[in-house]
Amino acid sequence: MIWQDWVFGLGAIAFAVALIPTLLGKEKPSLGTSIPTGLILVLYAFTQASLSLWFAAVTSVLASALWFTLAVQKYKIK
Questions:
Q1: Where are the domains of the chain?
Q2: pTM of the predicted protein model
Q3: How does pLDDT run across 47-74, given as a tens digit for each residue?
Q4: How far apart are CA 53 and CA 3, in angstroms?
Q5: How far apart are CA 71 and CA 33, in angstroms?
Q6: How far apart (Å, rounded) are the C-alpha atoms in residues 70 and 33?
Q7: Where are the beta strands (DSSP E) in 1-78?
Q8: Which of 8, 26, 65, 68 is the 20 to 30 A CA-CA neighbour of 40?
């Protein structure tokens, strides 16, 4: 594994951990924030995978799934 894979991967994990209070709290970001962020992270994961940055790609998918979870939570509130 190259060092860039670790940097991107650990960064995605840090962002995912930072989302936990939002996932558990009552206030949710707008769909206009959650959906584009999730889609961009899927694009990042695809790009990272194309560069064989597998750890980064998997963690980006994880972060994307959390943003999509927030979108679903927001949708259910409405």
A1: 3-77
A2: 0.92
A3: 999 999 999 999 999 999 999 999 999 9
A4: 10
A5: 8
A6: 10
A7: none
A8: 26
